[in-house]
Amino acid sequence: MPAPIRLRELIRTIRTARTQAEEREMIQKECAAIRSSFREEDNTYRCRNVAKLLYMHMLGYPAHFGQLECLKLIASQKFTDKRIGYLGAMLLLDERQDVHLLMTNCIKNDLNHSTQYVQGLALCTLGCMGSSEMCRDLAGEVEKLLKTSNSYLRKKAALCAVHVIRKVPELMEMFLPATKNLLSEKNHGVLHTSVVLLTEMCERSPDMLAHFRKLVPQLVRILKNLIMSGYSPEHDVSGISDPFLQVRILRLLRILGKSDDDSSEAMNDILAQVATNTETSKNVGNAILYETVLTIMDIKSESGLRVLAINILGRFLLNNDKNIRYVALTSLLKTVQTDHNAVQRHRSTIVDCLKDLDVSIKRRAMELSFALVNGNNIRGMMKELLYFLDSCDPEFKADCASGVFLAAEKYAPSKRWHIDTIMRVLTTAGSYVRDDSVPNLIQLITNSVEMHAYTVQRLYKALLDDISQQPLVQVASWCIGEYGDLLVSGQCEEEEPIQVTEDEVLDVLEGLLVSNLSTPVTRGYSLTAIMKLSTRFSSVNRIKKVVSIYGSSIDVELQQRAVEYNALFKKYDHMRPALLERMPIMEKTATNGPTEIVQTNGETEPSVVESKHPPPVTQPTNQANDLLDLLGGNDVVPVIQTTMPTKPASAGGELLDLLGDLSLSGGPAPAPAPSVPTSQPSFLLDGLSSQPLFNDIAAAGIPPMTAYNKNGLKIDFTFERANPNPNIAVITIHASNSTEADMTEFVFQAAVPKTFQLQLLSPSSNVVPALNQGTVTQVIRVLNPQKQQLRMRIKLTYTHKGSAVQDLSEVNNFPPQSWQ
User: Fold this and answer.
1) Tens digits of per-residue pLDDT, 278-294?
2) What domains are defined for the chain?
3) Which residue from 159, 321, 535, 642 lies 20 to 30 Å from 58 (Cα-Cα)?
């Protein structure tokens, strides 16, 4: 068989290939020749063939069939064969393949070889791909070589020991005696690898960390020699002596000095020397300074030293290299909470980074700028950030707008400034703000009573300029509906009032209803605003005409509002002033009640349905505690228990009676109607026309079921499905009593797992008549967005024949149609 071509010739041949297919053909042809040679056990050219195979592996072609040939080369006595064999093992083998275990004995023999270069090859291979089993078997040989006087072997043994510790941390103590004299070594390679070994041991073991803290003075001395006198000229880089060793020592000092006063005190002086004496004109010096800064920030350093470190980062911000500026911003962001005043000194430089062309730098600068905002600089910083919001890319607008909202809410110097700032954001980036910005701003405006005239005038002007920013239009519509009389009367004292007529205001709102830019939610705001103005303006006939037009709108939500408002004008006109009166001052309340799906800014999100009522006299005072007892764990959600309101005689009382159990004390509804949140599916006038409470519910053909039947009390469930939201199941309970005595003070409670939301409405009575002469009904609404099987725990409390009865039950046999 002719001699195979040399590696150099193969490389030259492959490089002449003009196409990928041609190269692939050459490789396949050569691989076939190599396979044939391997099958013939050709020892003469095995080394050459494996070398060519490794080159093909580097090009990305499969070379796994050469693994066993590598083992044969390792077992050879020739150094050239061993060198290629070990190189092939490092490239082609790893601990996932069982073949590598066959190498253990060869490596052990070579670690005890008489030639240092063969020992070096074995150490490199073990340190590169040794598995945990190999490391356990060979750790003794590595530790022995770590104690040898040969610096060539000691540096390789130190790195191999790092790999052994990573694979088998419990072998760490084996290397502890060998580390005693490593830092006294004058050889650069041994010293460098020794610091790496000590760092690895300190990171992995608190005991080792405490043990090696006594080496801090020695490390400080080595670092001082490197800075002051120069360690070895052959390791000089750009005029800085051995920067790689300096960085490694600084990293080790950072670990040793963390949370230790004595160690930190010992290294304060040398860190100050490194920070002041290192040349910053070259990247090498910047790398050392960066490690110095990280060390200063991590240890318990003096305040002056920390200020020096932050000033170094401030100088980095002026560097032309983008990577250095990014590193500086990231480091300042980490330290701004602990050294706020020192970072504040570089505020102008940080703000300048907002104008950088690099998007990563701009993002970091924006985050750091918001972290620097406080009560003293809020006006200046907001001015810069609002200017950035005007000109930044769309990807930044959402985060920047959120940051401005949070900062303004926290540090606003005045309510007028707060309102102006948020309106500026809505004008600039209204399409990018969070969904809760509209109700939050409405709440802010409502609570700022003295600013109502100023706010409605500013928002009216904004509407005249631009109606494309939907959140701004929604807030403006709400405010005009609430405070339109202040706008027309020209009562603004903060700025020159504008002369506006009622017809001009209505023209603007009607324009929103027909604009193609308006979302359905915005049209709902506008129609409700027009309706509110019927009690504030004299143009009632025009408003009636507009409302009646939308009674036949193809938008169901808009049509429903218009029909209800028309009914207010006709049958219930005496209630209209009370129903459309101004909203009271709102308070933020956090509830854990059931959620429904509502529309906000045209997007769907969960919203809390809140219902607050005084408990009825017949309810036990410890009802909340009883309910927690009922739940019996943390896998269920709380229930909103609604009660039966009493009907006051006044017009305001009629309004409360009309609204039923809805609360007016929560945040603003997605639509600005002060009467009913749009998340409620029930019609506005249901309570007046004596229709069923859920007249938008269609029977879904779901069979009824008996949930409870004990001691004469029977609870039946009937089911219906809500039309607007098919995820809501409406369950009506029917409680009947077959005993001879009435069951009084009857209370039905229910709880469901966290994946559901449940609302329990008021019962028809709290007395279950005897002898099945009547039933008590109560409605439960269950939101099941994930369509999971329905499960419920119920608790029944009542008084029967003078004695209190209480019982718990679990209902798991709901018909599939009720939850699918």
Assistant:
1) 877 888 888 999 999 99
2) 435-580 (no CATH), 705-818 (2.60.40.1230)
3) 159
